[in-house]
Write a structure and sequence with these properties.
Strand content: 25-35%
Radius of gyration: 15 Å
Structural class: alpha+beta
Strand order of the largest sheet: 1-2-3-6-7
Shape: globular
Order of helices and strands: HEEEEEEEHH
Bound molecules: cobalt (II) ion
Helix content: 10-25%
Distance between the termini: 35 Å
Largest sheet: 5 strands, antiparallel
Oligomer: single chain
Number of strands: 7
C-alpha cells in the first residue's frame, strides 16, 4: 500500500465530475487500499478518489479517528444518494482544504445505494456524522467542495484565511 499525494484546493482537478467505475479489478482494489492508507496518514475520516487525481466515483470513510466512533472502513463505489431527510450541521474539514473548519448544513439521514469493491450492489441507511461524511465525499465526485456550501459570511472568512485566488 502507498500513501498518495492529496490534491489541494484550488487545483482544478478537484472541480471535475468523476466517471463511474466499470472494472472491479485489482487496480480498483489497489486504489481503495491506497486511499485508505492515504486517509489514515493524513488523519482524515473520509477521502474520495478525485482527491488523489483519480477521476472515478469511489470514496472511503472510516470514522475511527473521531472520538466515540468505532473503527470501521466503508467503501462506496458508484454511490447514489436518496431519501435525504432532516437537518444536521457538523464542523467539517477536508484533506484538500487544509486548515479550514466550518459548520455545514446537510441532511441528517441518507440512503446510499452503491457497489462494493467486487461490484455487488449494496445499500446503507446512514444518519448523523456518517450521513454527513457520505454527503461530503459524494460531493467530491461531482467537483463540489464543502466550502461551496457555506453561507456568505463564512465564505468571506474562508477567503480571507486562504489568502489566495479562490473561486467561491
Ligand atoms: Co473533502
Amino acid at each position: 500500500m502507498m500513501v498518495l499525494e492529496i490534491l489541494h484546493y484550488p487545483d482544478p482537478r478537484l472541480r471535475e465530475v468523476s466517471k463511474p467505475v466499470t472494472a472491479f479489478d485489482q487496480k480498483l482494489h489497489r486504489l481503495l487500499d491506497d486511499l485508505h492508507e492515504t486517509m489514515l496518514a493524513a488523519r482524515g475520516i473520509g477521502i474520495a478518489a478525485p482527491q488523489v487525481g483519480e477521476k472515478v466515483r469511489a470514496f472511503i470513510i472510516d470514522l475511527g479517528l473521531q472520538e466515540g466512533f468505532p473503527k470501521e472502513r466503508y467503501e462506496f463505489i458508484n454511490p447514489e444518494l436518496s431519501q435525504l431527510t432532516g437537518k444536521a450541521s457538523f464542523e467539517e474539514g477536508c484533506l484538500s482544504v487544509p486548515g479550514i473548519g466550518e459548520p455545514v448544513n446537510r441532511s441528517e439521514m441518507v440512503l446510499v445505494t452503491y457497489q462494493d469493491r467486487f461490484g455487488h450492489r449494496q445499500e446503507l441507511r446512514a444518519e448523523g456524522l456518517l450521513a454527513v461524511a457520505i454527503q461530503h465525499e459524494h460531493d467530491h465526485l461531482d467537483g463540489i467542495l464543502f466550502i461551496d456550501r457555506l453561507g456568505v459570511i463564512q465564505k468571506q472568512l474562508v477567503k480571507r484565511r486562504l489568502g489566495k485566488q479562490i473561486d467561491l
